[in-house]
Structure formats: C-alpha cells, structure tokens
Amino acid sequence: VGSGSAVSLSWQVQDTGGSSAVSKCSAAARGYIQDRFLQLLAGRRRRRAPLIHRGYYIRARAVDHCVQNFLLKTQSHPRTQILSLGAGFDSLYFRLKDMGLLHHTVVYEVDFPNVVCQKATLIKRIKELSVLVGDTAVEGLGAVTFSGENYKLLGVDLSELSELERALEEAGLDSEIPTLFIAEVVLTYMENSRSDALIQWAAERFPQACFLLYEQVHPEDPFGRVMQQHFSQLNSALHSLAQYPDCEAQQRRFLGRGWTECSVMDMNDFFIRCIPEDEQQRVKSLEPFDEYEEWHLKCSHYFVLTASKGMEPSWTPLPRVTVPHHAGPVRIAGSVPAAGCAGLLGISGMRRYGHRSVLVKPNVILTTGGFGEEDGQHCRMRNFHVLSKSAGCWKAGCVTPKSPDKRLGERLYHTVSCLSGSLALMVGGRTSPSSAGLGMLWLKFPETSSPSDPDGITVELVNLQPAAEPATLRWRHSTTEVTFKGEQYLFVYGGCSALDPVLGDWYFLDTRELSNTVIAVEGPVPESRHSHSACSWEGGVLIAGGLGAAEQPLGSVFLLRELEHGFQWQAVETHPPLIPRYSHTAHVYEGKLLLVGGVWFHASSVPGITVIDLMTGLCLDYVINVEHLEWPLMLHNHSSVFLPNEKELLVIGGGGNCFSFGTHLNKEPVWLSLSNILTSH
Question: What InterPro entries does this protein's entry cite (predicted)?
C-alpha cells in the first residue's frame, strides 16, 4: 500500500496513503513502532491484525535503518537534505527532529497539493507538531505549501518532472550537498518512463546522493497475482512490476541510470540480516501470531533498495548472518501437470486452509477443521466434508458430526490419524493462537456405510491420562503411526503451543489406550520445529523441513528408525541439499519421499513437488504446471492425499490471508499427476 504517492490525479492512489497511515498507527499502538506522532497525523484509529502490524513494522524499520545510516555517514558535512517523495502523512520529520538528529539537515516532503494542504493544516492546529517545526513556519506561495526552518512541504505531481524541479528549486533544495531520496511505495504507481526519468534526474543532478526505494516484487507467482489483482481493483495498478519483476531487474534499473552502487534485498533477507536478534525476539513477543506463511510471502514480495553516487551507500547488514536461501536458481528436473477436479468446482466447504484431509478407506476422503468459506461466509469450519468416488466420479458431501458439543471439530492445524476402517483420531489444533491446544477426539464411522451418510460420523471427546495430555495441547505438529516390538503407537512430534512458539518434544501414544509410553530414543535430536511433514516408513517416521525457533525454514530430513531397544534419530543426507521449506505435505511411495508445495525463502520460484530417493539421497525438484488452472494455486496450508494405484495426488484446500490484499482460498481440489516422475526414476 502506498504512502500517499504523488503520481497522478488519482484519489485511489491517495487513499492507499490514508490506509497506510492507519496501519502504521495501529502498529505503533501495539508497540511495534515507537512513534507518538503517527496518531496525531493519521487521525483515524483502527485496530489491524498482527500480520498487518508485522508488515508495517518491517517497512518502517527498513526506512529508519537507511535514514539513520545516511545521517550517521554525513554527520561531518555542514549541510545535508532528505527529499521524501509521496510522503503523505508520514511522521519521519517529526521523529528525527524529536530525537535531535536534524542539526544540519533539511527535510523536503512532496505529495499531491490537497494532501500537503491537509497535512499543513494538521501541523498548524496541533501544538506537538507545530512546536517541532518552529515559530518561523509560514504558509508558502505556489508549490511550497508550508515552510519551516528545516522542513518544507511541497504540493506537486511527481510525474511532472519539470514542475517538480522548479518547485524544489523555489523551496531551496541544494543539488551540491549530500541528499537522501526516499520513495516508499510511490514510483510503482507512475508510468515507468516517468519514474525512470525521475531516478535518472536524481543521479544526474545530485553528485552526492543516496536513493531509498521500498516496493513490491514478483508479480507472477500465486501471491504476486493476488497482490496485483488487489491494486488493480483499487485502480492503483503497480506499473513497475511488468518491467522490473525482481530485485535484480531493479538493481539494473538504477545502475543503468547513473547510480554507481546499488544494494537490494527482499524483506525476509532484511529481517534476518539487518534486525538484531534481541529486537526480532521483542517483535515476536508483542502479540500471539500464527500467520507465518503469509508473513514470509509478504516479505518475499517487497524489497528495500539503496543506490548511491559520490558517497558511501546507506546500508549496513549485520555481519555473519546466514540466510536460509538456496544458492543460485532452483534446478528443475521436470514438471507435473495440475488439473481442476471436475465436478467439484464451487462445492461449499472445499475452499479452506489449516484443515486436514485423510483417506479413511479406499476412495473415501474425510476433511475436517480449518478456516474457509461456507455458504458465502468466511469462518472456522465446523462441519466435516467427505469426498467419495463411485463409478469413476468424485462426489462431495457435507456431514454435521454427531457430538455433545457442535464446536468440538472447529479447529485449525490439527492432525487426523486413521486407526482402522471405522475409527480415526483427531489430535490437537487450535481456535486462536492465544488459546490452549484442543485435546483429542475420536471420530467414529460405521464399517459398512459411507461417512458421507447423514448419520455417518460420531465425535467423542477422549479422556486422557494426565501424562498424555501435553501431547495434545499443540498445533502445527505431526502425528504418525510407528511400530515397536509389533505394537502400534502414534508418534506426536513438534508443533506450537500457547506457551511455546516452537516445540521439539515427542510422545509415543499407545493406540489402544492412548496412554503415554516411554520408549528410549537415541541419536542427534532434530532442532525444534513446527509446520513440518511426517510420514510413516518401515515402522519409523520421516520428518522433513518445518519452521525452526528463529522463524526460519529448515532443510533437514530425519528418520526415526526402530531399533531392538527403542528408536534412533538419523539424519538423511540429500544431494543437492533440500531447499529449506515448511507448510508442505508429504507422502512416501516405493522408497521415495514426495514433498508437496510449502513456503521457502527462494524468491525466484514457488515450491512444487520435490522427490527424495531414500536409498541414494538424490533430491529432485519439479515445477507444477498450472496452465490449465484459471486461478492462482497456493500450495501452503493445504492437505494432500496420495492415491498410489493412480499415481496421483489430490490437493484439497490451501491459501490464507494475503497480507492486506484479502483472503485467497484455492477454488477447487486439484489433481497432480505424478506418473511421469515416479516411473522416470
């Protein structure tokens, strides 16, 4: 969302600035940003979601990081200046002045004439603001709407470069002194020829300058398509994206227009490399949070760039920080075709995320929980949904479970394990991120009839022994069947809880009594994780990926292997190394581990299908060909069911809240045909 970008006479673009100010204000109210001036300038107060708070925090932090670096590196100069393009109701000047950082710096702000008039009126009316501008402040003439000793407000359309140049000259901008240009989601609203001309003009006219740009990137992946659609619906199209779709293109843009140095990183990189660990922990502890996928996707679709000429770059990443990236482009071994599930488009209850779908008997798939769309409303899903195949066709049915409490099945990020053809166990899950985990439920359905029959499923709360209870008070965990000395156990591993954002413990639950059984485990203990995948294999468990304690994706694969006296953790080496990821699903087929979708920090592509040969460790990535889908396929927070006879995967649900761009839910179940990649090995 732009910060009041002065680009064309578009009310819609100006509205993005108002919305941005309110979001920043909400983030400040929750302690993300220390800024007492935002509320004075924004006026409106509205509580935003934790995801929005994090998004505006990282944006404010990036701008502050570069501004304070500029001021530090130019403190020996007698005079410097900051030119904020499309500043809207930003509080930068007031914060810097209040902190005593503007001894020899003049701040110029440019925006639409009506925006700067409103801002000037606010400043004159509110004493806390006017006192910082100083007694000498006067209403200007022409484009200079308001003028203080070291603060100037200019009402000009940025896309009219000659007018802008004339107004800045009139306001006293000096092209011979060190200058910082700030464009915070501004240039992208301009036609590229005009924004390019502005970038080039700044380099040519100012021999000592830095340029700070914060903008969107990666328009063509599923999140990028949702993002673009949002801005198009606001009549505020993002023009830069077509010509400059990635960080490398933006870097070339500046280097080709007179800037001698240019550094750029996406916001995942920035968070890891430029924000100290103690500050990261402070932000993570401010409020309950469980939208990791959307946070990382948002951060991979925005970047911060600093270009410089004639002076040191305004940029200082933290030393020795490892980013969980994959070096170089992803090597693609082939593609997997995706096709919509005929007859299931528009079926109520299929559009959801954070749910679980499992094969409860041949050709019968049960889907429980999650957040989604039912009868046109977004809600936590209370009813269960059954897909059953007869005469070659899949049909959907909705089942209201028989239960003493209709809300028992209303949960996200739980697991469901089928123990027999008539019995499944639902473990954990949550309602809100601040709630405790939700315990355990029996799901019972008759052997003979289909679970989609109206009386098909009965839900019963499991009364657990105290020793087993902690196993169930969690979400984003895994529950996997293992065998030890001929007996079946459920291995509950990892996840999150209300007390701990990431867990690394495990429990063996006897499948008959659901009591906690202590079984010895040796070997190197995997790092704590949630949103990983877990599959039964040869009596043990394969754990892959996940999100670690630092909120960074993991690329490790572990096998929990049965021994005579217990189990042993054993690292599975892959080559090339598995690209770190989380929020994927997984299946094992004939000695191969299949990882489906997920979220990674590799910005050039989205995860498709990864096949790991468990005998050799060979790891191959396949892209998903979505040309036959008319909507963006988001492969995170989804479920998948593998049908080995057909060598097909059915992906059910997936998606999430795409920052402030709205909720995206995959429209229908999707078939992924794996026959080519499973026979070619």
Answer: Gal_Oxase/kelch_b-propeller, Kelch-typ_b-propeller, Ppm1/Ppm2/Tcmp, SAM-dependent_MTases_sf
